[in-house]
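Format notes (please read before filing issues)

Several people have asked whether sequences and C-alpha cells are stored in separate files. They are not. Every record keeps both together, in the order shown below: the sequence lines, then the C-alpha cell lines. Line labels are part of the format and must not be stripped during preprocessing.
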Amino acid sequence: MNLLFFFLIVFAINYILKFALRKLFKIEPSKREFFSYNHINDQHRKVDWFVRGGTLIVGLVLLYFVALDKYPPSYYLVAVIALIVVDHLVRAFFEWRASENPKQSILTLTQMAVFVAAIVFVIQFNFFLFGGFEGVVTEKTDTSFMVEVTSFNFGTGSTVHEVHMTDHTLFKGEVRGFDELEEGTLVRVMPFDLPSDFPYKLASEVIVE
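Then the structure lines:
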C-alpha cells in the first residue's frame, strides 16, 4: 500500500507540473495513441529502438548479477534510470527539432526529471517505504543484536531496535550469516510485518554493504 500510494503521488506531481507548464508556456496538448511509442519520425523510431535494445542488454546483465546476490537490487534500477533519461532526452530532441509542437519537449524533460527523482528516492529510501531501517550494530547476543538507527529521526535523535533472528532470516552482501556479523557494522534490516506494539523486530533480511 505504501508503494501504491507513493506511485500515486508521483503521477499526481507529474500531472500538476505538466498542467502548470502548459499554462505557463501556452503549450498545446499533443495527441498520443495508447499502446504506442508515438515516434516523431522514422529516424526517431530507429534511434529509440537502438537505445532500448542497448538498455535491455545492460538490464539483463545487471539482473543476472542481482539474482546471484552479487549486487543489491538498487543496481538494477540504475538501468531503469538510464532508459528513462536517454529515452526522454531522445524524444525531447526530436520534439524540439522535428515536431509541429517544439514546446512539447519542455513537458517531456519535466516528466523525465519527476520519474528519475522518484526512482532515486526509492533507491535511497526503499527500506523506509517498506518498514525497514538502517543503522549500526551496537551490541550482539547469541540470538539477536541491537541496531542504533539515526535515519529519519532528525528531530528525536537516534533510535535503538532489538533485532532477533528466525529460521527464515536471510543475510546478504558482505555477511553471509549471523556468526559473521560484528559490532560496529552498518546494516540494513527488513523486518517481518508484526504489530506495532511487538517488543522487538524479527529480521526477514539483513544486508551488509
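For reference, the curators noted about this record: The chain has four helices and six strands. The helical segments are 2-25, 42-67, 74-98, 104-129.
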